[in-house]
Write a structure and sequence with these properties.
- The complex is a heterodimer.
- Chain A is 29% helix and 20% strand.
- Chain A is α/β, with parallel strands linked by helices.
- Chain A folds into two domains: 18-98 and 226-254, 3-Layer(aba) Sandwich (D-Maltodextrin-Binding Protein, domain 2), CATH 3.40.190.10; 99-219, D-Maltodextrin-Binding Protein, domain 2.
- Chain A is elongated, with a radius of gyration of 22 Å.
- By secondary structure, chain B is mainly alpha-helical.
- Chain B folds into two domains: 3-58; 67-282, MetI-like fold (Orthogonal Bundle).
- Helix content of chain B is 76%, strand content 1%.
- Chain B has helices at 3-47, 49-54, 68-99, 104-116, 120-139, 146-170, 174-182, 187-198, 200-216, 219-225, 242-249, 258-282, and strands at 58-59, 64-65.
- Chain B has a two-stranded antiparallel sheet with strand order 1-2.
- In chain B, a hairpin with a 4-residue loop joins strand 1 (58-59) and strand 2.
- Chain B starts with a helix and ends in a 6-residue tail after the last helix.
- The chains are: A alpha/beta, B mainly alpha.
- The interface between A and B is medium-sized, with 31 and 35 residues.
Chain lengths: 265, 288
């Protein structure tokens, strides 16, 4: 046993010291997948203007990003959810804008507009057939996202009036794309996706007499606010990077609607 | 130093090195187990082992941590997968071991090995585009279901099971088979009354390997099962397994929270299930 230990120590001391991660000139970003494409595109441009820096961007979900930021494992967390103290205390947020949450319905349901209360009852599972709201006689299939999803949290707060009120019979899909596909393929399905996007095979639902219009994005009431969070002692490079992303003018290309003056930090 | 003593010294070094590698592996395994025990312990002490294991409601935000829906989903999906894969795998194995001649058996084994190595996400994708719509048409439901997960899993474990079955059948000494045929038994009689009983231990172990793979599969199952956390036994309805629920909820519960501890209990259950499979397979040690 002593020899094994000695050999182990010898191998360990012979290996080069493992560098601390992230390396000093790298910036690691983790969190919500809803703004992954925007942050990756922005990171590429920022790196061009800052030679020698490497930005590493990965998903994993809002909560995972915040927890890793709180532990000091990443420099920046992307999150649709406001941070709780037990995840990451005292962090500073840089909102990227508003990301519309759109409700989508399978074409065969025969419904393209509902009231806000009706939408809430559908998502809670209280309305079980589209015929009850003027559609085809077809069961309602609610397609949701897991508890970790920022979009689900926003829907629960803005439509359902609180956490934990989502239909227990909902199908769960892990991404916006999976929700879209499931809604498009499943007769009677309804779901929600973040960001304006091509919505083939589904009907975009008007809610309470309002439908999302990119020319008047602020008229649509359902939004998530994806935000970049950093620790208070973040380096100047990290702060420069998040400020750059929070101010880029081409955010609309990625579905992000700039916040009205006064809401942006 | 003589050449002999140098060789002895080299042997000792190799033994130490291999011992260290084995020790590291054991330490990692024990570390995982310890982490799960430490993580799950407080919840089990607070809620009670049986209340946690036998509860039928999963609503971690409301403090409900019943794991029956996931244990039931895991068992149903695994059982369906084994039921579907078993006869097909045996048919392939019999063809490979007793019907094909020349390079046929090795070609078949190669093909099955390639299929066994296909990443699970690809099987999940296939399930999403093929199995889910078929189940939807059959059942009139959403298609995402325990049945879809079972069918996808069956296809996933089929190549592994067929290769292991084929190996088990070819291990039966040819002289036994020749003796059976010489006594006037037909090929079918030889297969059913001699080869299967003689290969029983290896066939059983092969099945346990397939069960273990089915129990632990996550991604392909997650893509087609629907993720519903309500306990029900209808195979045509959506559900969830222990592994898919860990995947779904891991990102939302930070370490130290009750939800995180519940996920650790699920992982412990899976490890306990695997341990039971290993113990059962050890009872079938004797081979022909």
């Amino acid at each position: 046993m002593g020899k094994v230990l000695a050999l182990w120590i010898a191998i360990g001391s012979a290996l080069p010291a493992v560098p601390r991660w992230p390396a000093p000139r790298s910036i690691s970003v983790m969190g919500a997948s809803s703004v992954l494409a925007y942050v990756k595109a922005g990171a590429r441009l920022w790196q061009r203007a800052h030679p020698g820096y490497q930005v590493v961007v990965s998903g994993g979900g809002s909560v995972a990003g915040l927890i890793e930021l709180g532990r000091g494992h990443v420099n920046v967390a992307m999150s649709d959810i406001a941070p709780r103290a037990e995840w990451a205390a005292g962090v500073v947020g840089f909102p990227l804008g508003k990301l519309p949450i759109l409700f989508v319905v399978n074409r065969r349901a025969g419904v393209d507009a509902v009231g806000a209360n009706v939408l809430a009852d559908i998502l809670r599972g209280r309305i079980g057939n589209w015929a009850q709201v003027g559609g085809q006689a077809m069961p309602v299939v609610v397609v949701g996202r897991p508890l970790a999803s920022g979009a689900r949290l926003a829907v629960e707060r803005q439509v359902l009036g609180g956490r934990g009120s989502f239909s227990r019979f909902a199908l769960m899909q892990l991404s916006n794309g999976a929700v879209l596909r499931t809604v498009a393929d499943t007769p009677g399905a309804i779901g929600f996706v973040e960001g304006e996007r091509q919505l083939p095979g589904v009907v975009q639902l008007a809610v309470g007499g309002r439908s999302f219009d990119r020319r008047e994005p602020n008229a649509w009431p359902y939004y998530a606010i994806p935000t970049l969070y950093v620790n208070p002692g973040a380096s100047p490079a990290v702060l420069d990077f998040v400020r750059y992303l929070a101010r880029r003018p081409d955010r609309a290309r990625y579905g992000l609607v700039p916040l009205p003056r006064g809401q942006a930090s | 130093m003589t050449a002999h003593s140098r060789r002895l010294r080299t042997d000792r070094r190799q033994q130490v090195l291999l011992g260290a590698a084995a020790g590291l592996y054991a330490a990692v395994g024990l570390g995982v187990l310890l982490m799960l025990l430490v993580s799950s312990g407080p919840l089990l002490l607070r809620v009670g082992v049986w209340q946690a294991l036998l509860g039928v409601h999963w609503n971690p935000l409301a403090g409900q941590f019943g794991l029956v829906p996931f244990m039931s989903g895991t068992l149903l999906v695994t059982a369906l997968a084994i039921l579907l894969a078993l006869p097909l795998a045996m048919a392939l194995a019999v063809v490979g071991a007793r019907v094909l001649r020349g390079t046929g058996p090795s070609l078949m084994t190669r093909g099955l090995t390639v299929l066994a190595a296909v990443p699970s996400v690809i099987y999940g994708w296939w399930g999403l585009t093929t199995v889910v719509p078929v189940v939807r048409r059959w059942s009139g439901g959403p298609g995402f279901s325990l049945a879809s997960a079972g069918i996808v899993l069956a296809l996933m474990i089929l190549p592994t099971l067929a290769v292991l079955f084929q190996d088990a059948l070819t291990r039966v000494p040819p002289t036994w088979q020749e003796g059976s045929l010489a006594l006037g038994a037909t090929d079918d009689q030889t297969l059913v009354r001699l080869i299967w009983p003689a290969a029983r231990a290896n066939l059983f172990r092969a099945m346990l390997v397939a069960v273990a793979r089915a129990l632990g599969e996550t991604m392909a199952v997650q893509m087609v099962i629907g993720g519903q956390t309500i306990w029900q036994l209808n195979l045509l309805r959506p559900g969830a397994t222990l592994t898919t629920q860990i995947l779904t909820d891991l990102a939302v519960f930070p370490p130290g929270t009750a939800g995180y501890r519940a996920l650790a209990v699920m992982a412990l259950l899976l490890m306990a299930g695997m341990y039971m499979l290993v113990r059962i397979s050890e009872r079938w040690e004797r081979t022909p």
